[in-house]
Amino acid sequence: MVQILTGPFTQILPLAGLPFKGAITDDQMLIISQGGVLTKDGRIVDVGNFEMLRKANPSAIIAGISGDHVLLPGFVDCHTHICFAGSRAKDYALRISGKSYMDIARAGGGIWDSVTQTRKATETKLAELITQRANQHLREGVTTIEIKSGYGLNLEQELKQLHAIKIAGTISKADLVPTCLGAHIVPRDFDGTSRAYLEYLLIDVLPKIKAKNLSGRVDIFIEESAFNPTEATNYLRAAKQMSFDLVVHADQFTTGGSRIAVELGALSADHLEASTDIEIKQLAASDTVAVVLPGASLGLGIGFAPARKLLDAGASMAIASDWNPGSAPMGDLLTQAAIVSAFEKLSTAETFAALSYRAAKALNLNDRGLLEPGKLADMQAYPCADHREILYNQGKLKPAKVWKRGEIGVNE
């Protein structure tokens, strides 16, 4: 296949050469003026000055860019729940009226409401809904999307959700990364203890998911309303022995989850709104990515995860949307990142890193999130002359063009 040279871009931010852990200042970020990207077979061959690349590669097809544009790597959303049916607008109305998350759950709302509605949906309908949401994300520059199950909570329904994610992955041009969250809560129709339910998942559910190659990742919600630390530790250890990568819903309302994530070598610990200096220090000393979810804070009306403290302590911090029907229905990753960056005082470089290569690390993907030779040609271009306009507009400025594996204009 022939090489394609795309450009010139007013600015290119490759994000290459930046650290995977700790704080980043804006002056560490390389900015290429009047740049171009040379691609072949969906991967990046070279990045640099457009005219120099054109002269060095005279046989390359020119994909011209007119007007001011700033090019970034495609974003990676490493934590979503977009495999769901129905709405929880009733929950939201109760919450903004003063009811707590736990009050709503006890009254029949919460996660179980979404389980009930998702179970009623067909696999085909779920795949259609996932595709719609994934394509919306893609139009907004998110080229890789993690998607959890967890609104099925039995063998048949968890398989249905993961099958639907797989089907959607053949339709949407975005890359979809499935995660089994069978350990979301104990389903109300399960006749047994929380420990017995986790044993059911280990014996009856996870082996079939592994055999059908529906997911290589396992997540669990460690919280008073879900599973306690001891139960979660035993479950995750067993899942790890089955060769699943580990992810943890950690420290959302109470602490304990991030410690387990670190001790077991989980890829990421996600939420962290309740994390204290103790948990921050543990995460910073580990290779576990700390994933903050500002959408959940906005949806629940609670404080943000301590992103600034995590970075200053030396942690690898990513930002994800937590797009779900209950606590984070907005789903706009860039808007959420712009808001949390203002509240937590994150630099532009730290914010873009958290949305790209650090988020890819949370998914154990090392082939994306940077604009450098060998990486996937997942890119997005914003219609502006200065990269600072992107966060300044707090999510209102959207990419004019998105490339997935070098395919131009997937958002048009």
Write the layout of secondary structure elements.
Blueprint lengths: L3 E9 L19 E9 L2 E7 H7 L4 E4 L5 E4 L1 E3 L11 H8 L4 H6 L4 H10 L2 H17 L2 E7 L6 H17 L3 E9 L10 H18 L5 E5 L7 H13 L3 E6 L6 H7 L4 E4 L5 H8 L4 E4 L1 H7 L6 H7 L3 E3 L13 H12 L3 H8 L1 H6 L16 E4 L5 H5 L8 E3 L9
Parallel strand pairs: 1-4, 1-5, 6-7, 7-8, 8-9, 9-10, 10-11, 11-12, 12-13
Antiparallel strand pairs: 1-2, 2-3, 5-14, 14-15
Helix pairs in contact: 5-6, 6-7, 7-8, 10-12
Q: What labels would you give this structure?
A:
TIM Barrel, Urease, subunit C, domain 1, 2 domains, eight-stranded parallel β-sheet, alpha/beta, 38% helix
Strand order of the largest sheet: 6-7-8-9-10-11-12-13
| CA(first)-CA(last) distance | 24 Å
- What class do helices, strands and sheet pairing give? alpha/beta
Classify the helix fraction into a percent range: 25-40%
Low-pLDDT stretches are: none
Under CATH, the topology of the largest domain can be stated as TIM Barrel
**Rg calculated over all Cα atoms:** 21 Å
The percent range for strand residues is 15-25%
The total count of strands amounts to 15
Which CATH top level class of the largest domain fits? Answer: Alpha Beta
Description:
The chain is α/β, with parallel strands linked by helices and 412 residues long. It has 2 domains: 4-74 and 370-403, Urease, subunit C, domain 1; 76-362, Alpha-Beta Barrel (TIM Barrel). The protein is 38% helix and 20% strand. It is built from 16 helices and 15 strands. Strands 6-7-8-9-10-11-12-13 form an 8-stranded parallel β-sheet. Strands 1, 2, 3, 4, 5, 14 and 15 form a 7-stranded mixed β-sheet that branches. Strand 10, helix 9 (257-263) and strand 11 (268-271) form a beta-alpha-beta unit. Helix 10 packs across helix 12 (307-313). The protein is globular. The two termini are 24 Å apart.
